[in-house]
Amino acid sequence: MSKKQIVVTGLSALTPLGVDLQTSWERLLKGESGIGPMTRFDVQEHATKISGEVKGFDPEKYMPVKQTRRMELFAQFAVAGAKMLLENARWEIPADLAHRTAVIIGCGIGGLDALERSQTLMLSGGPRKVSPFFIPSLIANMASGQVSIFTGAKGNNVVTTSACASGLHAIGTAYSELLLGRADVAICGGTEASLTPLALAGFNALRALSTRNDDPLTASRPFENNRDGFVMGEGCGLLLLETLEHAKARGATILAEVVGYGASSDAYHITAPHEDGEGMALAMRAALDEAGIPPEELDHINAHGTSTKLNDITETRAIKTVFGKHASSIPITANKSMIGHLLGAAGGVESVFSVMTLHHGVIPGTINMVEPDPECDLDYVTDGSRKAQVRYVLCNSFGFGGTNATIMFKRWEG
C-alpha cells in the first residue's frame, strides 16, 4: 500500500517576538530576543523575574468581547492562531467538509491562571464566588474545542497534553489521522499561556529556570557553557495539514511535506532525561525510518535546546548517536534562545519556523553562544542566520515524564 502524501498549506504564530507570523519570523532571522522583565504580576519574591511574554495581543480582533471574558489566554491564542492560519492558507471550511476537518492542538498546562484566581476567590468569599465558567475555562482541551466552535470544524477535536512535547505530539497525531484516512485536513500545533505566580514558583522550585534577571536578552542560552536554566515563554504555533489530493483539488499553495514522525519514552525519570539520550535517539530514528532516508541526507535540526544543563548535553549525545560522523555537518538551531521555552506550544511554534526555513531557504541562528559547552560541540548556527538549501529538517520536542517527539518536514518539490 502506498503511503498518502501529507502537506503543509498554512502557518500561523503568536510569539514573544510578535503577534503574527511575519513579525516573529523577521525578528527571529535578525537574532532579536523576545525575553524581558515579567510584567503580568509582582515578581519581587520570585527567584526568576523574566519571561517571554506575547506583547500587544488584542483578542477582540478575533472574537467578540463577551467570548474573551469566558476564555483563558491559551484558548484565545488558539482561536486567534486558527483564524490567522486559515487566512494564511486561503481557505474557509466548507459545510460539506466540516466533518473531515480535525482540530488537534497541544497544550501542556491549560488555564492555570483561572485556577489560581478561583482558588483565591473561594478562600476569601466562599464557594459561591467561583464562576460557572471556571471549569470550562481551565481545562486544556478548550484550546481545540474553542477552535472547532469558531471555525466550524467537526472532525476529531482533541488536545494532546504531554508536557513540553505537547505541540509536536499534536502535529504527529494530526499527520497520523490524515495518513489513516480519518480526515482530509487538520488544524494542529500548540498553544500555552502559563506565565502565572504558581507556575513560576513551581519551575523555580525545580531549579529549572534561569535567574539571569539583570540581563534578560541573554538569559536563554542553549548549548552554552554558562547557561543556568530555561526562560518561560508563551504563545501559539499552528499548521494546516492536508492530504495532497485535497490540497491540489482546492489549488492550495504547498509550503512543505510531512514525511516522518517518531515518538518514544525514556522510561527513566519524571523530569530528567536519561544521560545517554536513548529515548531522544529512538524518536529521531523512527522519524528517519518513516521518511525512508539515510541519516546523511538530513540537512538541518531544529533542536529542543532548552538551555538547561541536562537537556542540551543529552540532546547533543542523542544526535551523535543517530547521525554518527554526519552529526558535525548538520546545522542545528535553537529557537528558544530568542523566544524562551513555550512549554506545550514549543513544538508548534518551532515546527512553524522549521517549515519557514524550508520555504525560504534560511536557517535562523542560535543567539547567546558566548562560550560553548565543551560537551556541546556541534554546529549550532551561532554566526547569525544562514542561507541554505534545506531539503529535510527534523524538529525535536522532549518533555517531563520522559516523553519524546520528532517530526520531519521536507521541502516541497512537486
Automatic annotation (TrEMBL):
Annotated Gene Ontology cellular component terms: cytosol
Active site annotation, chain numbering: C164 (for beta-ketoacyl synthase activity)
GO molecular function ontology, one term from the record: 3-oxoacyl-[acyl-carrier-protein] synthase activity
Biological process annotations from GO: fatty acid biosynthetic process
Record-annotated membrane-spanning stretches: none
Start and end residues of each Ketosynthase family 3 (KS3) domain: 3-411
SMART domains per the UniProt record, alphabetical: PKS_KS
Function field: Involved in the type II fatty acid elongation cycle. Catalyzes the elongation of a wide range of acyl-ACP by the addition of two carbons from malonyl-ACP to an acyl acceptor. Can efficiently catalyze the conversion of palmitoleoyl-ACP (cis-hexadec-9-enoyl-ACP) to cis-vaccenoyl-ACP (cis-octadec-11-enoyl-ACP), an essential step in the thermal regulation of fatty acid composition.
Protein's name according to its UniProt entry: 3-oxoacyl-[acyl-carrier-protein] synthase 2
Lineage of the organism: Bacteria, Pseudomonadati, Thermodesulfobacteriota, Desulfovibrionia, Desulfovibrionales
